[in-house]
Amino acid sequence: MEYNQILEEIQLELTSYKGLGKLPDYIPELAQVDSDKFGCSIVTVEHKKHQIGDVLQKFSIQSISKVFTLAMALSFEGKDLWQRVGVEPSGSAFNSIVQLEYEKGIPRNPFINAGALVIADVLLSRINNPKAKLLEFINMLAGGSHIDINIDVYVSEKNTSAMNTSLAHMLKAYGNINNDINAVLDFYFFQCAIEMSCEELSFALLPFADHTTCFNYAGISLSASRVKRINAIMLTCGFYDESGEFSFKVGLPGKSGVGGGIVAVHPNKYSVAAWSPLLNEKGNSVMGMKALELLTTKTGLSVF
Amino acid sequence: MEYNQILEEIQLELTSYKGLGKLPDYIPELAQVDSDKFGCSIVTVEHKKHQIGDVLQKFSIQSISKVFTLAMALSFEGKDLWQRVGVEPSGSAFNSIVQLEYEKGIPRNPFINAGALVIADVLLSRINNPKAKLLEFINMLAGGSHIDINIDVYVSEKNTSAMNTSLAHMLKAYGNINNDINAVLDFYFFQCAIEMSCEELSFALLPFADHTTCFNYAGISLSASRVKRINAIMLTCGFYDESGEFSFKVGLPGKSGVGGGIVAVHPNKYSVAAWSPLLNEKGNSVMGMKALELLTTKTGLSVF
Amino acid sequence: MEYNQILEEIQLELTSYKGLGKLPDYIPELAQVDSDKFGCSIVTVEHKKHQIGDVLQKFSIQSISKVFTLAMALSFEGKDLWQRVGVEPSGSAFNSIVQLEYEKGIPRNPFINAGALVIADVLLSRINNPKAKLLEFINMLAGGSHIDINIDVYVSEKNTSAMNTSLAHMLKAYGNINNDINAVLDFYFFQCAIEMSCEELSFALLPFADHTTCFNYAGISLSASRVKRINAIMLTCGFYDESGEFSFKVGLPGKSGVGGGIVAVHPNKYSVAAWSPLLNEKGNSVMGMKALELLTTKTGLSVF
Amino acid sequence: MEYNQILEEIQLELTSYKGLGKLPDYIPELAQVDSDKFGCSIVTVEHKKHQIGDVLQKFSIQSISKVFTLAMALSFEGKDLWQRVGVEPSGSAFNSIVQLEYEKGIPRNPFINAGALVIADVLLSRINNPKAKLLEFINMLAGGSHIDINIDVYVSEKNTSAMNTSLAHMLKAYGNINNDINAVLDFYFFQCAIEMSCEELSFALLPFADHTTCFNYAGISLSASRVKRINAIMLTCGFYDESGEFSFKVGLPGKSGVGGGIVAVHPNKYSVAAWSPLLNEKGNSVMGMKALELLTTKTGLSVF
Fold it and tell me: For residue C104, what pLDDT is reported?
């Protein structure tokens, strides 16, 4: 597969999407990014990388971090985890508290904010220093050592936390948060503030695509079957209320973040990370979504 | 892959699930089936079949028919179809009218009843004799000529149609039904009353798994890209409010019906149909679901 | 109380509200009315009438008819009626089907469309010629003989009936409609198409205000206690999602219709009917609502 | 009116309701009350009191306190208050957070918990020592000096505050809380922990029934028109999702609390407080509701 040529074609076609969408406004740091940026990095299971654009620039991974914390929680809890969080698409906006009340405090899946808070609670119960362990895990996955949070983003997240705090208290009311609420929220804001580049993200996701290599990083180990289940959740729930659309158009398991990043995996073929800051109305990167759609269209390959 | 041996193991393990679940009670014909029945038929893209159990007995395919009508509507309308029906999971029970009102008459996807009614309306607008064409299409897909409806089921469906009639009138109120409502409903009840065996279903689904053969049956032709998109919708929406669970545990695109049938495809590998009449509380076959879960567990292969 | 002077003051103050709001557009007949019209007729329990404006012009009473059919159904069924329809405010738009599904086919109250359809079903079960009886009852209440339907409105209602037909089929699905759905809908459209003037409506409502006179008209008889309960439902449910607002600002039990009519009763004091065709966004007459608010403000009298 | 005799008849008839319902379990203090207790105190606008049962025993007034804080907030803010809280019935359970999200942080009315939190926020913005002022206001209303909170209840409320804390953070997220959330919640738990007897409550509510005496207590002054509007809100929203039922059966404005207390006013006639700890499934006192229903049935008088 001539990935390099395909990436060049994609970059060319994306020029007509420049300027579409808008920057997120809920924290100032995410609105200060150069909105024209775009990068895309593919790593194949043979460890060959194919890249185009701003693949080395760090950005806020935001909700993409939920893939990593889910992997950690699943390694600790095993299938018991599914007593506390579901695997069904949510069918509503990503902050929606409605379904949570309706379903008595069991979040629909680990990728809506409520689900990620429960996952955070699991990690706080299981690990002495979960922040350090999370960074260690991600650095190991990415094969580097320079991945850390952006302090300004972290502080800003804490200062605009009313809706997530509301969610956390409701989870507590239903008995689905065991640790101190402020500690859970603090961890959650920490994970959202992690910064990575497209290159780093594509390497960090490769272990989710490569089922032939043992998944064991920084003490976090998962069977191939569990890795596949994380992929399944990515496909059905990874793009909020637009998951069906992504599955339909791209056909790969993936996860997006409001920092403009998108990751996806083609099992046994490659992992890919794209980044462009302008978002559509559902909170997903306009050019990132389009890039991945073009990638599977041009390669003629998706999981379907 | 030793499918025959795997099927034997599956049948053995399923004995502990016998008697679990219950027969549907909304029409008497579906409740008169021998609840112990089980069959499973696999057809590989090399056209080898592997079967176990009651694979030749006909049963009511019910909602599985929505895959075939979607394929027909997509071949006629192309991407314009997505103006009238979405591709997002519904996140609620299969008859739910709520989302329909909330979303102004655009059904979330083609597999909830409201979506299937819109698909039926498309076919009535496009085809002179849509019932005959549907049967012709399915017979061509399955490579046979003996597939037809069960008249008793068809009549019973018509007599217990209040909720679907309510849905149809609401769609009409929002301008998303163009034909006579009774004609639309009549076609919908007709498609649900089609009877097929596991063997027939597995063959009829094979063209959705095999992207190397041109999809062109009885004049219904689809590009490989469109076939994949139908698969994507099956994966995210094929099992009502349990689609996430099926994707998570089985990892294949599929579709179930309240007649106890389940079909799934492993792209470029095989299609499979399982049948057992007892249903779980979500309306999916207990043993059928478990059979497919065991199949992908034992083969170690899913799309993820 | 100097009602005549107060009515003149009200008419003067209402000039600044002229032209506000819009005509209903769902059937053409309601949109052909002169939008500047305004009338208000008060009848005291001493049978003195005080009027201003276009009090003799007939208009479509629409949902105000639900008060009369409720009175009839209650006289036939007694408290058993409350097994089939509730008495709680609906808290959502007047056509909403959501709550109906959520509450298993028991409409929240008799004044939402679903509730009125159940009331219609009751009358069809109880009366041989319910249309004739309804007209006889209203003519007796109003002390006249010239009240009838507008045929054009009736025909138009039947031709724009999709949402109400949807509601009726859902009620049928839950077993809360016993008669033929088309007959139920036909009666419902008939009642909505009744035409009355402000004068006629104010007289027809007087028996709901006057608890000292026996309520017995055309064979429809109610105890004072039951009449009061109808008033209670008017106060909590009479203005769709704006009932709280009406109770808050006007302080009387009342009922509005999309024909621009509003009726209200001050128990043991008077009944009042106001009419002006332009509606606010909730479907209630702008000037009618304001007229009644001014009436209770200026008289200093409400039930509170 | 022979109130004393009527109260004796009511007490007699209530014996068949003894033991029905259950004690609230969300805080231990409310579950430790003698469940057989019952009291009822009527005070007429001529200041005559008529009582039966345990009318001097203090109990936790809980949500009844919302009437008093609403009166205070309305005296400070006037009609601007209605920019921050609505006057419509909520049509759902009393803790429901759904409508709050749907309506962008504007609680439907001041008597659902979210609305009471906004009212508390208003008081914190307007008064230096709102707790002291609230007690002073209630003591003035009741004409006494011994009304205070129950410290144990107050502490317990604070320790079981997760759902209300969730609500407060959501209100904050929508910009409808201006003060420190913990201070707002602290005041809210304080007001719920106030203890009063039936006698005290009936006197404290009398100014809401008597529109001939100037409403001016501890500096909180309201026009008769505003007092009537509070009564209107009590009638449409005072009993959570059972407000329509109370209006229908009792026909008076009123307010209940999970401590088993119920107050009501018959404008220009009397105020009444009833108390009995066992609650129905909607959270309203079983015997209290029945006592007031019998009162208006036997006197033949309601606002309707």
Answer: 82
pLDDT above 70 coverage of chain B, percent: 96
**Cβ within 8 Å of residue B117, ≥6 positions away:** B107, B164, B167, B168, B171, B177, B184, B185, B188
pTM over 0.95: no
- CATH architecture classification, C3-299: 3-Layer(aba) Sandwich (3.40)
D244: tokens are 């329509």
Burial of residue B258, with CB atoms counted within 10 A of its CB: 0-12 exposed, 13-18 middle, 19 or more buried? buried
Write the residue in B231, B232, B244 that is nearest to A237 by C-beta: B244
Judged by 3 or more CB pairs under 8 A, whether C touches A is no
CA distances for B93 relative to A218, B96, B166, B241, C135, angstroms: 42, 5, 16, 6, 43
For residue C254, give the nearest of C230, C238, C273, C233 by alpha carbon: C238
Question: How sure is the predictor about B62, in pLDDT bands with cuts at 50, 70 and 90?
Answer: very high
| Alpha carbon distance A6, D238 (integer Å) | 65
Can you tell me the mean pLDDT for C119-124?
98
For chain D, give every domain's residue range: 3-299
pLDDT in tens, A81-98: 999 999 998 765 544 666
Q: Which amino acid is at B276?
A: S
- pLDDT at position B292 is 98
Structure-derived torsion over alpha carbons of residues C209, C212, C217, C223, reported in degrees to the nearest 10: 90
| Per-residue tokens: B290 | 């478990």
CA-CA distance, B208 to B229, in Å (whole number)? 10
Is A230:B230 a contact under the CB 8 Å cutoff? no
CB–CB contact B170 C102 (8 Å)? no
A86-129 confidence digits (pLDDT tens): 999 876 554 466 667 667 899 999 999 999 999 999 999 999 99
In this complex, how many residue pairs, one in chain A and one in chain B, have their CB atoms less than 8 Å apart?
109
Does this complex have an ipTM over 0.85?
yes
Element (H or E) spanning D40, and its range? strand D39-44
Q: What tokens appear for C46 in the block? A: 């001493």
Distance CA A5, CA A126 (A): 46
D172: closest CA among A63, A25, A159?
A159
Q: Is A12 left (phi over 0), alpha (psi -120 to 50) or beta?
A: alpha
CA distance D193 to D285: 17
- Mean pLDDT, rounded, for A175-200: 98
**Spatial CA neighbour of B263 closest among B176, B212, B197, B215:** B197
d(CA B286, CA A32): 52
Enumerate residue ranges in chain D where pLDDT < 70. 1, 91-99, 101-102
- Say which amino acid occupies B163: M
- Among the partner-chain residues A232, A244, A297, the one whose CB lies closest to the CB of B87 is A244
| C-alpha C180 chain-centroid distance | 25
Contact A170, D163 (CB under 8 A): yes
CA angle at residue D237 from D234 to D243, to 5 degrees? 100
Quote the CA–CA distance of D152 and B254 in Å, as a whole number: 57
Q: For residues D165 and D114, what is the distance between their CA atoms, to the nearest angstrom? A: 10
User: C 94-153 residues with CB below 8 A of B?
Assistant: 96-98, 101-102
| DSSP type of residue C252 | S
Which of helix, strand or coil describes residue D112?
coil
Tens-digit pLDDT profile for residues B239-253: 988 899 999 999 999
Give D297's contacts (C-beta < 8 A, 6+ positions apart): C225
Closest CB to D89: pick one of C99, C236, C267. C236
Q: Which of B247, B250, B268 to mutate to test the interface with A (most CBs of A within 10 A)?
A: B247
